[in-house]
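Board notes (copied after class):
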Amino acid sequence: MTSLRHGSGGQVRFLLDGDVIAADVSDPTVTLLDHLRYTLRRTGTKEGCAEGDCGACTVLVGDLNGERVKWRAVNACILFLPMLDGKALRTVESLGGDHPVQREMIARHGSQCGFCTPGFVMSLYGRSLGAAGTEGVPVGDVIAGNLCRCTGYGPILAAGEAVPPGTGEEAETVAALKALQPGYGHPKTADELADLLLANPETRIVAGATDVGLWVTKLHRDLGPTVFIGDISDLRQIEETPDALTLGAAVRYSEAREALARLHPDLGELVRRIGGVQVRNAGTIGGNIANGSPIGDMPPALIALGAEVTLRRGAERRTIPLESFFITYGRQDRAPGEFVERVRIPRPDPDMLIRIVKLSKRFDSDISGVCGAFALRIADGVVTEARIAFGGMAGIPARAPRCEAALTGQPWTGATVEAAAQALAADYTPLDDLRGSAAYRRNVAANLLRRLWAEQAEPVSVLHG
């Protein structure tokens, strides 16, 4: 069934405030935001940026998780309507105007021009429900994916702190979701997906749409035949063993963060800075890899840690080092009909010196200018192993072989580090763009290595006064 009509449309069925909404979809890339505003006339959800950056379009999407609903805040502007099939939806209108979040925003003057307010309200509402990516998270992190151009963050933060945890309202939604029959025909298993892609290798795979969504909203591209994989359960598996962490390709960043942080704290911190909560609730580990962006945040870190990626075509699988997957800008080692199935990250040796650093113009919710990842083994004062990778320095995320060679077998000294820092200039030829000049990128890449040395060689009092 899926292979006969994939990418050509179908009926999407979802719950909106308990009612079943059935939408006939001829264009699989119509956004949820457009459907809300122009078809359902729910105009409280705003379009601010159409790229998942400002949060004015934030809504909550709910999935069955046992006997409860797991909600997550997402950006409606880059969520394609078919991705809502079989799920529950809440918009700012769902709150009725007198919800505790809305009362606190009013009482604390948290709305100025008001354009961004519905998005903030929905993010804070999600936090009150313990939605994905918000449990135990400070209010400031929860609203990092919402922008207020009037700079009224103080009252908004105060309102968020004052909102009590939400209650119940689950039983009816759980029952309705169990009874809801999805209509679009997404593949349910990796086997179904493999068969579909083998028969239709030109099909565009969409996981979270956090990047592909912009191809539609900003570049107005026709994606052609499209298949959505976000609900394939065997691509959503997380497996932790003493030796490694294995993540299915459709695991979302918000779902992977805790496991990645257990692998190494710097990985958890890196995930915290990948977009806002809304982006992390949609974007996937496998999608970030398969997209092959030279400024994707996670690949440099995974390359430095020796990650492997498993690719599948039909019933055949092959596993390669992640660094080998990226060939050149816009080109990966992936045959027609082949897809990323999972990524395996070896558990680092506790004796390894690991540092992962993201540099961007804004601290929160911004794309990397440069992302550097270092994994060094130092024994008796000598560097015995070095794996160093950067994003933003070339057309692909890539290792620094000359820098690594300048370190390996050498004493861990300032002179060695300086020679390795200088060698980086021969490893990369960065570009000038809006996120930084080539000269800036070369300088900061070298300085990240120098800083790593300084942090290890000097007392904290010297470094930080």
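Comment from the instructor: Residues 438-457 form the longest helix (20 residues). The two ends are 66 Å apart (CA to CA).
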